[in-house]
Design brief:
Length: 137
């Protein structure tokens, strides 16, 4: 069974939410707000604004999960989370965060942990047999 890197999973979720949040904010600022304040149609703001708010909350959760997995200081986590509130900055932050996390390398990386994880079901059967032998003795 392959070793699962929780940082990679958290990074992928963060990246998806950063793009969705960024696109939602750009649509809100560049389309919905002009529709409301120039042409008087507030419907796009209601729809796009609500969607952006929902996706922004998911973005914040993904940011906090990634921050926990990478052991970031709280200031970095807050700054990355705030990047979803400024148009186009979430795209810049996503690139920087991706480079930072990839430079950290995989989590855990010890040979013993990789050896245990690499055995899969066979390793589990061996451990069960060892435990059964101990119980019979």
């Amino acid at each position: 069974m392959p070793v699962v890197d929780s940082r990679k999973i958290a990074l992928n979720a963060y990246r998806v939410m950063a793009y969705i949040t960024g696109i939602g904010l750009v649509v809100l600022v560049c389309y919905a707000m002009p529709m409301k304040y120039i042409w008087g149609d507030s419907r796009p703001v209601a729809v796009v604004g609500a969607a952006h708010g929902f996706f922004y909350m998911a973005y914040v959760v993904c940011t906090l999960v990634l921050a926990e997995r990478c052991r970031w200081r709280p200031v970095r986590a807050v700054l990355v989370a705030l990047a979803g509130t400024i148009p186009f900055i979430s795209f810049v932050a996503e690139r920087k965060v991706t480079k930072l996390v990839k430079a950290m390398g995989p989590r855990g990386g010890s040979a013993a942990a990789g050896d245990r994880a690499g055995r899969g079901a066979a390793g589990g059967a061996e451990r069960a047999a060892d435990q059964q032998t101990d119980l019979n003795a």
